[in-house]
Amino acid sequence: MRLSQFNNLSHAQALQSLQECCHCYQWAVAVANMRPFSSLKKLIEQAAELWQMADEAQILEAFSGHARIGDIELLRSKFAGKAGEEQGQVLAADEAVLQRLQQLNDEYFERNGFIFIVCASGKSAQQMLTLLQARIHNSRDAEIQNGAREQGEITKLRLRNLITD
Question: So what does this thing catalyse (predicted)?
Answer without folding.
Answer: 5-hydroxy-2-oxo-4-ureido-2,5-dihydro-1H-imidazole-5-carboxylate + H(+) = (S)-allantoin + CO2
